Amino acid sequence: MPSPPCAPDRVRRVACIGAGVIGGGWVAHFLARGYDVTAWDPAPDAETKLRRLVDAAWPALEQIGLAEGASPDRLTLAATLEEAVADAEFVQESAPEKLELKRSLLAQLDAAAPEGVVIASSTSGYPMTDMQTEATDPGRLLVGHPFNPPYLIPLVEVVGGEKTDPAAVEWASAFYKAAAKSVITMDRELPGFIANRLQEALWREALHMVASGEATVQDIDDSITEGPGLRWAFMGPCLTFALAGGEGGMGHMLDHFGPSLKSPWTRLEAPELDDSLRTAMVDGCDEAAGGRSIAQLVAERDQGVINVLRATGRLPDQRNEGGDK
Ligand SMILES: NC(=O)C1=CN([C@@H]2O[C@H](COP(=O)(O)OP(=O)(O)OC[C@H]3O[C@@H](n4cnc5c(N)ncnc54)[C@H](O)[C@@H]3O)[C@@H](O)[C@H]2O)C=CC1
Ligand SMILES: C[N+](C)(C)CC(=O)CC(=O)[O-]
């Protein structure tokens, strides 16, 4: 892979390809951190939807602190993919999660982006090895997996494929850090990376409990928000469980509770996502929403995340990493 045109902390112009929930969230994040952003999305109503998403996110972004010069006015909508990446210094792809689409789109982006520019995919689980098959320069393609909404949840998981140049992985990790993200750089590909592998285990069990009538959607959500979720916002599951061992820490915890790992609690296959389970999940979520619209829930979620980030000293200004451009 030829060298990237600039150092990770000198990037000024970012291209976001695909502008739905996640692409739009990336756009809001990069704008708030003071970048010039060019977006491209083939949907006819993409610009309206994207500007609506950015406007809805902006109060939250003002609350956590904008980089100097940050403005929604620094967003440009491109007419073509080629135009979007023509002078980009970094490209974030957030198109639908379909392997064939990702393969050909990443090859198109590779053909159009300036030499050496790193191209990251937001994929939730495809290994880059499976997506970089059609590109001429696969060395610059890697995964940068964000969390919803990317403008508030700090984590990005960065991992390359078999043909990715390790220098591109290093460059992307440094770039995301300069853009005020919290980065886990993985040295090998795992299906679902780290966080989604963990989330999917929990999700699989939740769907089993709803499908079998053992718990309602509300029970499942309360069991996390009123229970382990409160601890997980600042202490991960390993250290949290070490405290379950009292003075004996993780050693005693494993000796005491380890044998229960053999109990048949969590060895289920994924449940069949049939109509009845789909209906139970959709109806349960409608009930849990209690008449609140998606826009209201998004605003509530954003405020909740900001409160947690502030309480635990993790807002960009509290970390002294503004990523100002
Ligand atoms: N929704 C989530 O919570 C998360 C999603 N992701 C990943 O982000 C990516 C995007 O997912 P969402 O934003 O949820 O989907 P979405 O459906 O909200 O947005 C996808 C966007 O891509 C556009 N699009 C369709 N064909 C395209 C093409 N050929 N080139 C460029 N754009 C195209 C669509 O018009 C749409 O605006 C996926 O890879 C997904 O796995 C990652 C983390 C979280
Ligand atoms: C639902 N999802 C698998 C697309 C979620 C993610 O990939 C990350 C997140 O935001 O939790």
Automatic annotation (TrEMBL):
Task performed by this protein: Catalyzes the NAD(+)-dependent oxidation of L-carnitine to 3-dehydrocarnitine.
Classification via Pfam families: 3HCDH, 3HCDH_N
Descriptive protein name: L-carnitine dehydrogenase
GO biological process terms held by the UniProt record: carnitine metabolic process; fatty acid metabolic process
Alphabetical UniProt keywords: Cytoplasm, NAD, Oxidoreductase
Binding site for NAD(+): 18-23
Subunit structure, interactors included: Homodimer.
UniProt-listed SUPFAM superfamilies: 6-phosphogluconate dehydrogenase C-terminal domain-like, NAD(P)-binding Rossmann-fold domains
Catalysed transformations (reactions): carnitine + NAD(+) = 3-dehydrocarnitine + NADH + H(+)
3-hydroxyacyl-CoA dehydrogenase C-terminal domain mapped to chain residues: 192-260
Single Gene Ontology MF annotation: NAD+ binding
